[in-house]
Amino acid sequence: MQDVEMVDVAGTSSAPGSRTGPPRRTHPDPDTAGRRRRRWLAVGVAVAVALGVSEVVGRVTAVEPAVEVPAGMVAPVDGPPWARWRAPAARTDDVLAASGALVVVAVRDRRFEVVAHDERTGERLWSQDLGPVSGTQPLTGCPHDGADVGDLLLCVVEPPLDPRETWRRGTVAFPAPDDRWARVSAVLAATGEVVGTWRVHGRLIGVQRVGDDLVVLSVGADGRARVARYDGLTGDRLWWYRGSAPLRLREGIVSGAELRVSEEFVLVQGWAATVLDVDDGTELTSTPPATYALGSLGGSVFGTWTNGVGATVRDAEGRELFTARALFPVLAASDGEPSDVLVLDEGGALVGRSVADGRELWRLDTYRAARLRAGGHLLLLGVDGYQVADVRTGEVTWESPVRALMWWAPLTDGRTVLAPGRSGGGAPTLEARRLDDGHLEWSMPLEEGVRSVTAVGGHLVLRTRHELVVLG
């Protein structure tokens, strides 16, 4: 096992020249993720053959390639689906997709357990006990964004404190997490084999996945952020960044400090909002410290907002595009189309602006929040229903026919909206309406006890208190 540590190097600045890492890509390579997944598939097959489990590999690799689906969206649904299989999973368990498997991640009896099921049949492929966990640890889990993670799971476990080890507790002049460590395990999705294990040390705040790497946020003794990107398999540090402003901390809990990542950016929020380049850690911008600071990440643009200053939208190089009074809405799923229109939320109104110059294209007064963006349409969700608007014009093209409580958030496959409905007798249903015009294509009853309907790696998944049900 390799140990890595979030260190504060004396005299080290946050200038790009002070960090090591891959050269900066002006334009992201769309084939990079695919090459990494193919690399891990080759590694997985080699390890499996060496261990004499070729039968398992043959069964798993025979799965037809899944359709690439954006995070938060489902694969195309042609008609009313049926329950293909179900498996035990508590409401608090996490579920993720990984190369032909749906993986249930849970803490049971204070141990971290990972169980993989065949995505087609529900057959239990493997299970892995990744060790003890002390109570409820916020970083323990296998980070993902809802899309298929590919051939490699990266799982983080915060173990119980070992009384034989000395931990630096209460040595800083502000409330912060204790200085301790977490273990990272790289697990092959095909076999459950642990092919890499390493540790990260520090006052840990957040861990996010990007590609087959992990981005880790911790806080130093001076209250400032420490951010690093690590190779998910080996733990090798690819780049490191030291923040210039303190994080927002309260009562030993990192309240108001946040780490978010996208394919292009890393956002660190504290008393300031700082955006880094995801490839090499270069600081693209950082707001002045303020009582209220926010950041938003888009596909190829980002924005920052502070009280008294307002919002500034910038491109992937950090160049200012325009200023505004609002930031991007938090979307559950988006295909980013059309790419030349940016939708902003001003609180009580949505505004469409040209990405090139910030010119206002349209304005829509609404109490509903933008939830989904797909196929040039924007779905707006409220507690009593939803409506669909055109991204280019802001015109509302249709809305849900009946005002009723939205007890789970609508989903989309890019062609239809899958949303809660009611039968003539008042029983809950799942209904599909065309995204273009709201025409009802089909409706199906939901079984009793369903608490939510979610998208996991393109799969349509029902959750009850004790089970997950995969539709197909």
Task: Characterise this structure.
With 472 residues, the protein is mainly beta. The protein is built from two helices and 35 strands. It has helices at residues 32-50, 54-61; strands at residues 2-5, 83-88, 94-98, 101-108, 111-118, 124-132, 152-157, 180-188, 194-210, 213-219, 224-231, 237-246, 258-261, 265-269, 273-277, 283-286, 293-297, 301-306, 310-315, 320-324, 333-334, 341-345, 349-354, 360-365, 369-374, 377-382, 385-390, 396-399, 411-412, 416-422, 428-434, 440-445, 452-456, 459-463, 467-471. Strands 1, 7, 8, 9, 10, 11 and 12 form a seven-stranded mixed β-sheet that branches. Strands 21-25-26-27-28 form a five-stranded mixed β-sheet, with no helix packed on it. Strands 2-35-34-33 form a four-stranded antiparallel β-sheet, with no helix packed on it. A hairpin with a 3-residue loop joins strand 22 (341-345) and strand 23 (349-354).
Kindly summarize this structure in a few lines.
Helices cover 6% and strands 46% of the residues. The protein is mostly beta strands and 472 residues long.
What's the helix count?
2
- What is the percentage of strand-forming residues? over 45%
Named CATH architecture of the domain at 1-10 and 93-246: Beta Barrel
Which ranges are low-confidence, i.e. pLDDT below 50, for 5 or more consecutive residues?
4-65, 170-175
Largest sheet: 7 strands, mixed
How many beta-strand elements?
35
CATH top-level class of the domain at 1-10 and 93-246: Mainly Beta
Distance between the terminal alpha carbons, to the nearest Å? 41 Å
Helix and strand composition category: mainly beta
Anisotropy-based shape: globular
Mean pLDDT: 83
Helix content: under 10%
Task: Fill in the CATH topology of the domain at 1-10 and 93-246.
Answer: Lipocalin
Rg:
23 Å
